[in-house]
Amino acid sequence: MKGLKNIITVDKGIMGGQPVFKDTRVPIESLFMHLEKGVSVNEFLSDFPTVKKTQVIAILEIAEKLLSSSKIEKIVETIA
């Protein structure tokens, strides 16, 4: 898995600082919103052609590692 800075960009000049897929203006949140609505990854990629499949896979791997971590309570506490 690539480093986070190679996958996500957070810059106040891009989408008001919302985390986006690197080299795009597509918010990471849009991936999860699509998945929640039952949209497939391939359909998401079709809707956002500037996002690479490797980026989506990397984001999902990061989410999986965070959510399955034995330290999830500490992570959530830190975020809150």
List keywords for this structure.
80 residues, mainly alpha, 4 helices, 49% helix, 2 strands, two-stranded antiparallel sheet
Describe what is shown at a glance.
The chain is mainly alpha-helical and 80 residues long. It has helices at residues 28-36, 41-47, 53-67, 72-79; strands at residues 8-9, 20-21.
Tell me what you see in this structure.
The protein has helices at residues 28-36, 41-47, 53-67, 72-79, and strands at residues 8-9, 20-21. The two termini are 26 Å apart. The model has no long low-confidence stretch (mean pLDDT 90). The chain has 4 helices and 2 strands; from the N terminus they run E-E-H-H-H-H.
Give the averaged pLDDT, no decimals: 90
**Amount of beta strand:** 5-15%
Helix-and-strand structural type: mainly alpha
- How many E strands? 2
The 3D shape can be described as: globular
Order of helices and strands: EEHHHH
- End-to-end separation: 26 Å
Radius of gyration: 13 Å
- What order do the strands of the largest sheet run in, or round the barrel if closed? 1-2
Residues in helix, %: 40-55%
- Continuous helix count: 4
Which ranges are low-confidence, i.e. pLDDT below 50, for 5 or more consecutive residues? none
* Most strands sheet: 2 strands, antiparallel
